[in-house]
Every structure is written in C-alpha cells, then in structure tokens.
Amino acid sequence: MRIINLGNNNSALNNFIAEIRDHVIQKDSMRFRRNLERIGEIFAYEISKELKYSEKSITTPLGIATCRTIEDSVVIASIMRAGLPLHNGILNILDKSQNAFVAAYRKYGKDNKFIIQIEYASTPSVEDKVLILADTMLATGSSVVLAYNKVCDNARPKETHIVCPIASKDGIEYIAKHLPHKGTTLWVGAVDEELTIKSYIVPGLGDAGDLAYGSKL
Predict the structure, then answer these.
(1) Which burial class, exposed, middle or buried, applies to 49 when counting CB atoms under 10 A from its CB (0-12, 13-18, 19+)?
(2) Domain at 2-52+70-213: CATH code
(3) Which is higher by pLDDT, 199 or 3?
(4) pLDDT tens readout for residues 147-172
C-alpha cells in the first residue's frame, strides 16, 4: 500500500489541518465543516493527477480546442457522519463522480471495548472504477476496512484511494494488513503517534462528527 502524507509539504493544507485541530476555532462548527471541505478539495486535486485522461475535441465560440479530460469512472464513498464535509470537498472537484455512503459507529461494551457496527450502506457498483473512500479520522482502521468491504462486496475497484486527513500509526498499520496491497493508496495530512484507551487519536482533534454537526445521544 502506498502512503502519501501531503502534510510533509508546505501548502495551504497545513493551515486547514491546524484550524480543525485548534480547540478555539473548532467552536465555529460552520468553519470546521468548511475547513474539512477545503481539505477534501485539496486531496481530490492531488488524486486527480493519478487518474486516466484522454483527449477530447471541445467546440468553443471561435473554433475547436483539444482538451485532456478524465476518462476514469470514479465513486466517492464516505463514512457518516464525520466524512460528509470531506466527501463534499472531493465531490466539488471530481463532480462527475458517483457516490456511496456508509453508516458506521462504535458500539461500546465493558472496559471501553467496542466493535464497529455497520448499519446502512448505499452504493453503486465499484467494479473496475476508481474508489475514493473518505473519513476524517483514521484511528484503529476498523471502520475504513469494514466500509471498504461493504462497498466492494462482490465487486473489485480498479484502484482505491483512502483519504483520511488525520491518521494514527496504529490505524495505518491495520489497514495496510487488511486492504489489498496492490492498487491502494492512503492519503493523509498528518500522522499522530498515540491512541488512548478509548482509541481516540492524540493529539488528534476530538470527535469530528460532533464538531461538524453537534453532539449526539
């Protein structure tokens, strides 16, 4: 599995990552959502460089222009609800993509142990298409792997791009073991070292779903 950390380069992405982490700026949920959307736009632009293109003749008011346009069919999948602003940003750039949504949550038992519960998925076929699977945080990696398996049930994507702006080392190791090695790329903006006993990323940013859409029961 290829791992690309865009945070290693100096760009506006680093400002957006800093703002979604900042506990003061986080209080503005609209700005938090918009920052995630902008982060998605940056990742989508970088991923677009990896897609297949073909030449196309475009009629302008004054003549014919030859343009290179995306040939690949793309499916953007996100894990609700934290992945939705990120999804919107990717879709802003790759606006002809099909879309998939997976509802997943942590179901806690005793001693802070939990399982990832998948309750719902709506997806087109990803057969021979480019799959972009987006989630704001990659903590243990379990949600991403289960969502991938759900979306790819009885289908095999041509390529897979996993987009997780903030990831833990443990999560990266987990998906590297459980996702296809060939044709899979993980895109991150920052990698954090630590997971708490409840499997929250430290320093991380907190609960991205709550910060974007409000607290839940």
Answers:
(1) exposed
(2) 3.40.50.2020
(3) 3
(4) 999 999 989 999 999 999 999 999 99
